[in-house]
Amino acid sequence: MAWVYLFFAGLLEIGWAVGLKYTDGFTRPLPTIATIVSMAASLGLLGLALRTLPLGTAYAIWTGIGTVGTVIVGMLVLGESTAVLRLACIGLIVCGIVGLKLLTPA
């Protein structure tokens, strides 16, 4: 169950990272509230995952999911660069996430 918590914590990290873009410096109430709720839920789920998963592994995977997801949203929604080298770097992060998952018993 810890891996499920961690996965959803990572998805919520994407939500709050992207949400920050729409808060306009925390001046827009609805995006700000949604971002704060997403942050709290993400950290809460990470905390639940940390009950059984190693700290370094869980944190690296949590931030990795958030990083990769945020970059993908940036490319698809915000028109950010899809340069081949950028995609290759994202691929390396994904390899690291998969590697940590495969090498972590739990």
Automatic annotation (TrEMBL):
Instruction: Fetch the Pfam families from UniProt.
Output: Multi_Drug_Res
Q: Which UniProt keywords apply?
A: Cell membrane, Membrane, Transmembrane, Transmembrane helix, Transport
- Endpoints of the signal sequence: none
- For this protein, the parts annotated as crossing the membrane are 33-50, 57-78, 84-103
Membrane topology per the entry is: Multi-pass membrane protein
Manganese: is it a keyword of this entry? no
GO cellular-component term (any): plasma membrane
**UniProt record, GO biological process:** xenobiotic detoxification by transmembrane export across the plasma membrane
Any idea which GO molecular function terms this record carries? transmembrane transporter activity
Q: Where in the cell is it found?
A: Cell membrane
- Domain of life assignment: Bacteria
- Tell me which InterPro entries the record gives: EmrE-like, Small_drug/metabolite_transptr, Small_multidrug_res
User: Per the record's keyword annotation, is Transport included, yes or no?
Assistant: yes
Give the matching SUPFAM superfamilies: Multidrug resistance efflux transporter EmrE (SSF103481)
Homology family: Belongs to the drug/metabolite transporter (DMT) superfamily. Small multidrug resistance (SMR) (TC 2.A.7.1) family. Gdx/SugE subfamily.
Listed name of the protein: Guanidinium exporter
Species of the source: Vineibacter terrae
Q: In the UniProt record, what gene is named as encoding this protein?
A: sugE
